[in-house]
Structures are given as structure tokens and as C-alpha cells.
Design goal:
The chain has 20 helices and twelve strands. It has three domains: 1-22 and 38-210 and 268-443, no CATH class; 212-264, no CATH class; 447-579, no CATH class. It has helices spanning 49-52, 80-104, 111-120, 127-133, 141-165, 197-210, 269-273, 275-296, 328-334, 349-355, 357-377, 382-400, 409-412, 418-432, 434-442, 448-477, 503-506, 510-524, 535-559, 561-569, and strands spanning 2-4, 169-175, 190-195, 212-221, 224-227, 249-250, 253-254, 256-264, 341-342, 347-348, 489-491, 497-499. The site of the ligand CC(C)=CCC[C@@H](C)[C@H]1CC=C2C3=C(CC[C@@]21C)[C@@]1(C)CC[C@H](O)C(C)(C)[C@@H]1CC3 has 15 residues, from helix 10, helix 12 and helix 14. Residues 17-28 have a biased composition (Pro residues).
């Protein structure tokens, strides 16, 4: 394991470019071996005067609001406590309904009635509701529910184990925003992250494709051995305790059998059969995790933002400015603690959840839909292959660029509350995989020219998305590098530069435009018979517009008048010359 300075040529861009290189890590701290993690170390630095003004420019991001005391005035987002409450209640329902409607291929309003049953008795769902979740479950929903709970738990635990044991790079994130509120003597501090998501992605795929364990009964007859088909009963090839062994018979007499553990392809189609029920239990876990994190945000640690409860004086943890209103519902939704951590401060809940279980889970669900379609039809359609390739590439890209996430709004600014926990763990895998779910039963069998056109749309979207994000990454890393040295920029009073040509000269959020175009191409693979697969394009447009407004506000706070100047140079937000 190596510790990377994000300023070096391999790192993406967690460190603003104008900072001096960090001091070398103290001996023994940098390696962070297995388990010891190193992810919780902080690197104290002298405060940078160039950025200090930006951290105290608004009431909602002031240093005071990073302490647990309730701020006197608070700027609510998302419609305040009522909006937060309604969003919390409605999003799980929308998730379950969307899965149901993708399975049916259209919106069926009567399904809303069944969801009312859940609201009537959320802690003990009725059997009618459980049937709604899993109409074709083999063993009845009351057996399948704990089974799904175990599968989701195992998936999460498996991803945690990979994060812990795989080799990683240790990369520092952006400076913590607590220099005045909680920092030690005005020092600038950063958290260290274990970056090994890309490896975890490939290990997971390998396991599912060739490394899935299952028992094969080998028949031993007259000294000869012959492998039979697996005989693990209705649990099928699942190596779980509920699998049943069935004695083999051959030629009228019972033969001796010996169980052998083999490796093969995971029975992914099982995920299709239990899609809604898996979503249901994931939502339940997301609620539990949000509750734990909310409670944890009141516990004292050493107040240095790494959540390790470590060596310093016992103080409240570093809180997110936007999740510290004093209203419990709102704060639960937004997330109080900025960087909740466990395992001695080495395990970062937010970074982990944002990229691992949900995002990789999305790719795996897509593969499950492909497997199911192959089982059903005996072949796989062009749309199904393309949706797997496009979305798989999107997930891969996110994990390959893992350290780029360290400077996103989610990591640097937002707390880790219900919104992100639910979004990361349940919303992303189960609603982003709806196109593949839809295609299993409602594939429009698009013509080759139609598929080629959609490939072109996806490639165009990807080139814009990757081009713009890559250009900004390269520029933030080293503005003199050959890739970006020809670009013009605006030097701000804060010290950082803003690109005014290349992709970023076309529109201020051109990366969002590319991302949305890609998303549209995924929906188009489902044809035009139903609006259900287009849910993603509609939702994503709303999310990106809202996010661009939030980022615009944050940049106005960071850059002041310079941001207005930048906006006059690059007047368009999404589409050059239009919006
Ligand atoms: N699939 C999904 O569900 C989602 C995908 N995304 C994707 O994630 C990606 C990252 O999104 P996000 O983090 O929101 O936003 P951006 O990548 O656009 O980052 C915004 C930040 O970039 C910097 N910046 C803005 N303009 C310039 C410029 N002209 N030159 C240099 N730096 C500039 C500013 O920070 P500073 O100056 O401090 O560096 C600003 O705060 C996007 O491509 C988005 O589409 C996002 C949300 C959900
Ligand atoms: C409706 C609801 C619950 C919204 C919560 C929002 C989250 C779903 C999204 C907020 C930011 C996200 C990002 C990604 C996924 C969706 C969420 C979690 C992301 C990981 C997707 C892949 C990209 O390449 C990305 C890494 C840039 C991106 C980061 C932001």
C-alpha cells in the first residue's frame, strides 16, 4: 500500500493546485497496512490564507454551524422539515412502485393501494404486501424475507471486507471545513481515504462469474466417480444453510455420494426473482444505518472529524453545516455528521456507501437481468447487452476515478443522513437498474440502425461527460500539463483558477449535460412504448438542475464577485447558446 499525495501526477485532484505540497508523512504512518488502515490519519497543515475567507462567507457554512450548537438562523433546503419528511416517506414507496411497474411494463395505479398496506403496518408487513414484493417466491414470502435480508447483509459485509483487505492507496481528501470551529490551533486538516474501489469491483465480478462456491455431489459407485448435477435442493446452488441435500439413486439402488465444493458462476437470475423484496430489505437497512449514524453524531469523540473517538479531548464530532438545524426530522434527513467513521477512524461510511455496495450492486443487478433474459429466451437481446455495457462502463468509470469523488459536494459539504444513505444503498441500485429490469419482459427488439443510433448518443454523452470531468481534473491537478495548458482561465481572488475555454467555456455545467445525454441513451434502449424506463431521464434532469443551483450558490459563496465575472464569460449553464 502506498500513500499518495493527490498533487502527484497519478492523483486526481483532491488538493487545490495552489497549495504547497504537503509535508512527508511521519515514518510508520504512511503505510497503513491491512486492518491498521491508516485511513484515519490526519495531516495537520498551516492554515491557508488564500482560502480562509471562503469558509466563513454565509450563515449556513459558517464555522459556528459546524459545531453542534443550533444556529440562530438556518437556511433550509428540500422544502424544510416537511419536505424532508415527505421525501423520506415517499422515496421508498416510489422505489417499490417503480420496480413493480418496470416488471409490468407500464404504470398501474392500483398498485398504489398495496403500498397503503405497508403504511398501515410498517413494522409487520401484511402477507398481501409481502406477496406484492415477491409474487413468484418459491418458499413463500415469510421464508424469503429473512433470506433476502441475509443476502443483502452478506453483500454489504462482503464489500466492507474487500475495502478492508484489498491493497489500497491512501489519499487525502479536501481540507476539512472546521479550521476555526474545531481545528487544532487553526491548522488545516484532511482525512485520509482508502482507495481500492476499482479493485473491489473486479474482484466482485470475478467472484460472481467464476468464483461462486457451490456443492456438487460426486457419486461413488464401484470405485468409479462421476459428477452429477448439483443436488442441493430448492436452495439450488446457493451455499446457504437452508440448502437441502437429496440422496441420489442410481439404477434402483442408493449410491454413495460425497459432497465436493466447486467454484462456478453465481445464480444471478435469483436476484431478478427477488428484486422488489431485496429492495425492501435494503430500504430497511438504510433506515437502520441512518438511525445509527444520527445517534452516533451525538456521541463524543476527539472532535477532529475522523470519528475515531481518538486520543484528543472528548468533543462533539465535526458536523455538516446543512444538517445541523436543530430540527430532528430535517437533520436526520440531511445528515448531522460530516464524515462519520468507524473502525478506529479508518472506515469512512460516506465514501464507502457512495461507491461500493450500491454502485457495484447496480451493475450486478443488471447482470442478473441479463442472466434472466437468457434463461427465459435462450438468447440475449441487443438492448440488454448495451444497457449492461453502458451502465457497467459508467460504474467502472466512477470506481476507476474513485479519488475524484473526494472533492464532490457530497463528500466535502453534505452530511451523511437518510438522503444519501438511502440514495446510495437503495435508490441507485434499484432504480438505476430499471431499464434492464424492463428489458427482461418487455424488450422492444430494436432494429440494428436504431441500436447504432443509440450507441452514438451514448458515446456523445460519454465524450462530453468524461472530457469535461477529465479536463477539470487535469486542470486542478496541474494547470500547466500538456492536456490543459492551452486553455484560458480566470484567476480568482481566492487563489484557484476557473476554466473559461475548452469544455468549461461552452457551459458551466457541461459535464451534467453529458451525463444526462448518456442517461437518455440508456432509456432509449427500452423503446418508446412505456414511460417507466424514462423515469431515470426525468429524475436525473431534476436532480442535476437542483444540484447545479446548489453548486452555483456554493461557488458564489466561495468566489464572491469572481463567480459573477466567470458567469458573464460563460453565460450558459447546460447547453451553449440555449440554456
Ligand atoms: N449519476 C448520478 O446519479 C449523479 C452523477 N453526478 C455526476 O457527478 C459529476 C460530478 O458532479 P459535481 O461534483 O456535482 O459537480 P462538478 O464536477 O461540476 O463540480 C463542481 C465544482 O467544480 C469546480 N468548478 C466549477 N466550474 C469550474 C471551472 N470553470 N473551472 C474549474 N473548476 C470549476 C467548483 O469547485 P472548485 O472551484 O472548488 O474546485 C465547483 O464547485 C458530474 O459529472 C455529474 O454529472 C452527480 C450527481 C448524481
Ligand atoms: C432521490 C435521492 C435519494 C437522491 C439522493 C442523491 C444520490 C442518489 C446521488 C447524489 C450524488 C450521487 C453521485 C453518484 C450516484 C448518485 C448519488 C449518490 C455517483 C456515485 C454516480 C457515478 C458518478 O461517476 C459519480 C461518481 C461522479 C457520482 C457522484 C455523485
Amino acid at each position: 500500500m502506498v500513500r499518495l499525495n493527490p498533487n502527484d501526477r497519478f492523483a486526481k485532484h483532491p488538493t487545490p493546485i495552489e497549495r504547497p505540497p504537503p509535508p512527508p508523512p511521519p515514518p510508520g504512518v504512511a503505510t497503513g497496512g491491512k486492518g491498521s488502515g491508516g485511513g484515519g490519519e490526519r495531516t495537520p497543515r498551516p492554515a491557508s490564507t488564500s482560502s480562509s475567507s471562503s469558509l466563513s462567507s454565509s450563515s449556513s457554512s459558517s464555522s459556528e454551524s459546524l459545531t453542534p450548537s443550533t444556529p440562530s438562523s438556518f437556511e433550509y433546503e428540500f422544502g424544510g422539515p416537511l419536505g424532508a419528511f415527505l421525501t423520506m416517506v415517499s422515496l421508498p414507496i416510489v422505489t417499490l412502485l417503480l420496480i413493480r411497474w418496470a416488471a409490468r411494463g407500464r404504470i398501474v395505479w392500483e398498485d398504489v393501494d398495496v403500498v397503503r398496506l405497508l403504511l398501515a403496518s410498517p413494522s409487520c408487513p401484511s402477507s398481501r404486501f409481502l406477496h406484492f414484493l415477491c409474487p413468484s417466491c418459491d418458499d413463500g414470502p415469510l421464508v424469503e424475507l429473512p433470506r433476502c435480508a441475509l443476502v443483502v447483509f452478506s453483500w454489504f459485509a462482503f464489500q466492507v471486507i474487500l475495502e478492508r483487505v484489498l491493497p489500497c492507496e491512501l489519499v487525502e481528501g479536501a481540507p476539512l471545513p472546521d479550521r476555526h470551529g474545531g481545528g487544532r490551533g487553526g491548522e488545516e486538516r484532511r482525512l485520509t481515504y482508502r482507495i481500492n474501489g476499482h479493485l473491489a469491483f473486479w474482484v466482485t465480478l470475478m467472484l460472481l462469474d467464476v468464483g461462486w462456491p457451490r456443492w456438487i455431489d460426486v457419486v461413488v459407485e464401484g470405485g468409479a466417480k462421476a459428477a452429477t448435477t448439483t443436488t442441493t435442493g430448492r436452495g439450488g446452488p446457493w451455499p446457504w444453510p437452508w440448502s437441502r441435500r437429496v440422496p441420489l439413486t442410481g439404477g434402483g439402488r442408493t449410491t454413495a455420494t460425497r459432497s465436493v465444493l466447486t467454484l462456478g458462476r453465481a445464480p444471478l437470475a435469483w436476484l431478478y426473482d427477488h428484486h422488489a423484496m431485496l429492495a425492501f430489505v435494503t430500504i430497511a437497512y438504510a433506515i437502520c444505518l441512518s438511525t445509527y449514524l444520527y445517534a452516533k453524531s451525538f456521541a463524543l469523540d476527539d472532535g477532529d472529524g475522523d470519528g475515531d473517538g481518538g486520543e484528543g479531548a472528548r468533543r462533539p464530532p465535526l458536523l455538516a453545516a446543512g444538517g445541523n438545524s436543530g430540527n430532528r426530522v430535517y437533520d436526520f434527513f440531511m445528515g448531522r455528521e460530516l464524515n462519520p467513521r468507524s473502525l478506529g477512524g479508518t472506515f469512512d461510511w460516506k465514501e464507502f456507501c457512495e461507491l461500493r455496495p450500491g454502485l457495484i450492486g447496480w451493475a450486478v443487478l443488471n447482470m442478473a437481468m441479463l442472466a434472466k433474459q437468457r434463461d427465459r429466451l435462450g438468447y440475449v437481446t441487443g438492448s440488454m447487452v448495451l444497457v449492461n455495457v453502458f451502465q457497467g462502463a459508467y460504474v467502472w468509470d466512477a470506481l476507476y476515478q474513485e479519488r475524484a469523488i473526494l472533492t464532490t459536494m457530497d463528500i466535502t459539504t453534505d452530511g451523511f443522513g437518510y438522503m444519501l444513505v438511502f440514495g446510495d444503498l437503495a435508490w441507485v441500485p434499484f432504480t438505476y437498474s430499471l431499464q434492464a429490469r424492463y428489458l427482461v419482459d418487455h424488450d422492444p427488439l430494436l432494429s440494428l440502425p436504431a441500436l447504432a443510433g443509440i450507441v452514438a448518443v451514448n458515446v456523445a454523452g460519454y465524450l462530453i461527460f468524461r472530457g469535461a470531468n477529465g479536463q477539470k481534473d487535469a486542470f486542478r491537478r496541474d494547470p500547466n500539463s500538456v492536456e490543459v495548458s492551452h486553455l484560458t482561465y480566470l484567476r480568482t481572488k481566492r487563489g484557484t483558477k476557473l476554466l473559461t475555454s475548452g469544455w468549461w467555456g461552452l457551459a458551466r455545467k457541461i459535464n451534467y449535460t453529458g451525463d444526462w445525454i448518456m442517461g437518455l441513451s440508456w432509456c432509449m434502449l427500452c423503446g418508446f412504448d412505456s414511460v417507466v424506463p424514462y423515469f431515470y431521464a426525468i429524475y436525473f434532469a431534476i436532480l442535476l438542475v437542483h444540484r447545479s443551483v446548489r453548486d452555483d450558490r456554493l461557488c458564489r459563496e466561495k468566489y464572491g464577485d469572481d463567480w459573477d465575472r466567470y458567469k458573464s464569460i460563460v453565460p450558459y449553464r447546460f447547453i451553449p447558446g440555449i440554456i
